[in-house]
Specification:
By secondary structure, the protein is of the alpha+beta class. It has one domain: Alpha-D-Glucose-1,6-Bisphosphate, Chain A, domain 4 (2-Layer Sandwich), CATH 3.30.530. Helix content is 27%, strand content 43%. The chain contains three helices and seven strands, in the order βααββββββα. Strands 1-7-6-5-4-3-2 form a seven-stranded antiparallel beta sheet. The chain is globular and about 50 Å long. This is SRPBCC family protein. It comes from Streptomyces sp. R41. InterPro entries: Polyketide_cyclase/dehydratase (IPR019587), START-like_dom_sf (IPR023393).
């Protein structure tokens, strides 16, 4: 099992951050590796399911995922039901003193031999770097949007 973690800040309230990150339909908007998402049984909530496709490390991967926790402004969690390997993801949200949001992302994955002989430490680094880059771009986009609001 590989566990990857990363903490980042978004310049919006926890409620707004949660709305962006916990809604799978938003994933292609901010995750570079996310190619497509299809909601299977309605809007995001505990028990909702979706199909998500990623292009990462030269591989195209499609998973069926279930949202297991959905606490607006506090926590969202999901896990794979079907796909080339299993993973569990969690976002925990905390309000910073300035009203922005601290997000702690955790990802536990059991890739088996899906990525061949790639060392687990390298896969962890690829996952963290991907979230670091994507969350940085999202934070900058949100800052720019805030500056252009009347």
């Amino acid at each position: 099992m590989i566990k990857a973690e990363y903490a980042f800040d978004l310049p919006v309230s926890p409620k707004e951050a949660f709305a962006l990150l916990s809604d799978p339909a938003q994933d292609p908007e901010w995750q570079a590796a996310c190619v497509d998402v299809r909601l299977l049984n309605g809007a995001a909530r505990a028990g909702s399911r979706y199909e998500i496709t990623f292009q990462l490390i030269g591989k195209r991967m499609t998973f069926t995922v279930e949202v297991t926790e959905f606490e607006p402004g506090h926590r969202s969690k999901f896990h794979v039901l079907e796909g080339p390997f299993r993973y569990i993801g969690t976002y925990d949200y905390t309000e910073n003193e300035d009203g922005s949001t601290g997000v702690h992302w955790t990802f536990e994955v059991e890739p088996g031999d899906y990525f061949g002989i790639m060392p687990k430490s390298l896969l962890r680094k690829v996952l963290v770097n991907s979230v670091k880059k994507d969350s940085g771009k999202l934070a900058e986009k949100l800052r720019q949007e805030a500056r252009t609001r009347p």
